[in-house]
Amino acid sequence: MQNLDFLFKRCQEIGPITAGFVYPCSQVALSSCIEAYQQKIFTPLIIGPKANIETIASTFGLDISPLTIIDVKNEIDAAATAATLAQQQQIKCIIKGSLHTDILLHAILDNKYNLRTNALLSSCCLMHLPTYNRLIFIADMVINIAPDLAQKVHILENAVTMANSLGWKNPKVAVIAAVENINFKMPATLDAAIMAKMGDRGQIKNCIIDGPLDFDLAVSAVSAQIKQFKSPIMGDADILILPDLQAANSLYKEMVFMGGADAADVILGAKIPIVVTSRSDDARTRLNSCAAAAIIAHQQFKA
After folding, report:
1. Can you say how many angstroms the Cα of residue 155 is from the centroid of all Cα atoms in its chain?
2. What is the DSSP letter of 292?
């Protein structure tokens, strides 16, 4: 069964991508930056207070001598500098360090840096579970709390972009609800049905969409057979679009903390991919996310 190691093999093939590591003022954040450099995923530009970063490196025995540090005073200046470098295409990814997520995203979304696109910012995560026979993407568990139909379409399209970039040419997308039938009292089922029809008519491209699907039909061929359900997705979904952030975030954390899942999480929808890992994410998840973002950036700038 394939795991997420393919991300690192692909990074070795394409070579390191220039990335801005924004305010990595902790042992974990700075170590992630160094490991991404050593694994040849990124050529990092460290953006933060130089004296503080050098003290952290000295305290924990981290070698930052090969890395460039852009000296700034605080979190706000670090985020603004990263956005400026991205605007000038001097960096092709932005990686969050120890600053608050809202400070970083505020800079990225500031119109003066011209990093916004017509798409919505949303997260997508590629998961490998040791108990499941295929890799699977889920979205959006980080940014959009209660997305409406238009926002769900953007979330789906961003997820497809990530899947396409990582090698899924025509992924199967399951739009998840509590039931597989349309129920007028359950708006998630209506949104899912509309999105499926948009896929049928080519309004959403580069994927196969069906919905509403309850979770078991999306991930279990046995359940689909027992229920005598007919769909282009018979328990073999590649992408799960959850109805809201609460559902997606809970599923993500259940997979990681109870299912032992390996994860790679990227924020898409801006002109460059962004990695904003959780404080509870381990070093492997941080590195996986960097590798996925580097591959996506390579595809974006190659196009």
Report:
1. 11
2. H
